Amino acid sequence: MITLNRKWIRLIGIVGCTMCLASCKQASDASGMKPSYATMKVEATDKELSTSYSATIRGRQDIDIYPQVSGTIEKLCVTEGQKVRRGQSLFIIDQVPYKAALKTAMANVEAARAALATAALTYNSNKELYAQKVVSEFSLKTAENSYLTAKAQLSQAEAQEISARNNLSYTEVKSPSDGVVGALPYRAGALVSPSLPQPLTTVSDNSDMYVYFSMTENQLLARQYGSMDEALKNMPQAELRLNDNSVYDKKGTIESISGVIDRQTGTVVARVVFPNESRLLHSGASGTVVVPATYKNCIVIPQEATVQLQDKTLVYKVVDGKAVSTLITVAGINDGREYVVLDGLKVGDEIVSTGAGLLREGTQVK
Predict the structure, then answer these.
(1) Is the pTM of the predicted complex or chain greater than 0.85?
(2) Under a CB-based contact definition with an 8 Å cutoff, are residues 274 and 288 in contact?
């Protein structure tokens, strides 16, 4: 019985040793496997990268319309969204009191003219009588002063007539420019005045639309072509992506860039002009401006082939089967997927294209 147990114990020991040796061999084989990395040969190509900027849309000019006189709106001459021409009537304010004021002013002018004529007769008569020594110099001077006073009163009355005539004309509120009528918060019967908290409406000249966006100082410098005038002349045309992600069918021209960098945000404001014959764009809307940048005969690599160390960018070249870290300079504009390499690589170099962050200097690359 004891002999049988010893045989079983020996058999179990042999099997255990065999399994242990097998597992050790597998582990040894696994540890001997070398990881593989995707690599790529560097080539020259043409590349267009696009940068997107949040933007606001404004009409060429948005003019708030306020009344210049107080009164009740008698008539609305336009509707919201209507296209108007310069000088076209928008509102009519109650004209009765202003017509009465004009008649009073005109009557005052006539009375002042009559008073002036009488004063002139008296003055001329006194001059003749003074020459004949019939009246005193005091009477002559008094007549002259009455004449000058009547003359001044006529000028005053004429000025009041002009003011009354202007006030009457202001009761007809007209469009100061070509454009489109905005909201109409006040209707017929509403009492309005020049001190309104809200304008009668807004006339937006939207034949061309101004689209404003901000770019950082670095983005501006990356697009410079020398002077600001040269930069504006050489900047490519921009696209406009609307809020529904559709692309506007007309391209815009970057017309101006502010000459002052905002100290708080570190950005400059740029303005793009888009034609708007179809009136699809509306003042006050928002969208995204897409500005392309074209690079000719350049080296383009995927961003996952790079490693960022503070403000440095490096890649791993494959040299004699080993990874060698190399500093590169990339363009300040990118699309979030690829970099345009300005310095540090040349055509024909082989680099690790994925997993660069896992590599170390001198790692064997299979």
Answers:
(1) no
(2) no
